[in-house]
């Protein structure tokens, strides 16, 4: 991540925090519904020290990691299969058109009936939310690869599998990363919604459950502490993981215009 981008990010965060505190000091809203930054920070530190937030954060991250891995494998399989078979491509395009606009929360009643309110149900909702945008991006990526790339690979005597993993997958990497970023954001939304509805699994809940519990007890600083953790993780993953992967691959290989 470039230093200028970090400074810009810090500047705007400080400015937004200052605006928040000014609104609190103005007394326009009750402190019960609009807590100060110090109250939010205190709630955040207390939850981290007593381990409550850490356990729930690890639980949420483990489910998201598992769901992203499953979605990635399925998306690669479906996209590559569609690329090599026109008949299957029609089926997969139809499935994407049907399932992509369908929010995971709309499937919750069915998933509750079919699999109960456990970890598996949350996984299904996240995979549904992440899979289709990934397939869409990968299909676009594979379709945009010039035919000459494949012909060059054949001239070098590469097998079909080598052309696939040494030419096609790297050539579609910008679309793959874009799909992964969309999937990451959608996974968080699906996870928080599912955890708020399904609650804890085997007495263990995630960040969504943490926020829900704080809301039930009208602990607004605690609610904002949970939201703050989600925002911080989002920024860290976006700026330091995705940007780093992009710099070491897409930009380094000159694939970004």
Automatic annotation (TrEMBL):
Q: Which CDD domains match?
A: TM_PBP2
UniProt keywords, alphabetically: Cell membrane, Membrane, Transmembrane, Transmembrane helix, Transport
Q: Name one GO biological process term.
A: transmembrane transport
Quote the Pfam families the UniProt record gives.
Answer: BPD_transp_1
Identify the residues that the record assigns to the ABC transmembrane type-1 domain, covering every copy: 57-242
Topological relation to the membrane, as annotated = Multi-pass membrane protein
One term under GO cellular component: plasma membrane
Query: Record's superkingdom?
Result: Bacteria
Membrane-traversing stretches: 6-25, 57-82, 88-114, 121-138, 158-178, 190-211, 223-242
- Repeat as a keyword? no
Q: Does the record's keyword annotation contain Cell membrane?
A: yes
The entry's localization annotation reads: Cell membrane
The family this protein is said to belong to: Belongs to the binding-protein-dependent transport system permease family.
* Name of the protein described by the UniProt record: ABC transporter permease subunit
């Amino acid at each position: 991540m470039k230093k200028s981008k970090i400074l810009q990010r810090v500047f705007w965060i400080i400015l937004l925090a200052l605006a928040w505190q000014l609104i609190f000091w103005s007394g326009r809203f009750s402190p019960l519904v609009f807590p100060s930054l110090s109250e939010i920070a205190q709630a955040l530190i207390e939850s981290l020290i007593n381990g409550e937030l850490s356990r729930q954060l690890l639980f949420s991250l483990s489910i998201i990691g598992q769901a992203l891995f499953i979605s990635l494998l399925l998306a690669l399989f479906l996209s590559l299969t569609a690329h090599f078979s026109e008949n299957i491509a029609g089926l997969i395009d139809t499935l994407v058109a049907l399932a992509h606009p369908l929010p995971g929360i709309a499937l919750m009643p069915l998933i509750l009936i079919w699999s109960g309110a456990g970890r598996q149900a949350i996984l299904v909702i996240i995979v549904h939310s992440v899979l289709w945008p990934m397939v869409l991006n990968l299909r676009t990526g594979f379709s945009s690869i010039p035919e000459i790339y494949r012909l060059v690979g054949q001239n070098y005597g590469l097998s079909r599998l080598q052309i696939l993993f040494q030419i096609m997958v790297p050539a579609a990497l910008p679309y793959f990363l874009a799909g992964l970023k969309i999937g990451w954001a959608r996974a968080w939304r699906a996870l928080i919604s599912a955890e708020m509805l399904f609650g804890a699994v085997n007495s263990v809940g995630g960040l969504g459950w943490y926020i829900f519990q704080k809301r039930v007890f009208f602990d607004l600083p605690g609610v904002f502490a949970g939201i703050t953790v989600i925002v911080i993780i989002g920024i860290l993953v976006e700026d330091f993981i995705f940007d780093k992967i992009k710099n070491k691959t897409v930009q380094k290989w000159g694939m970004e215009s």
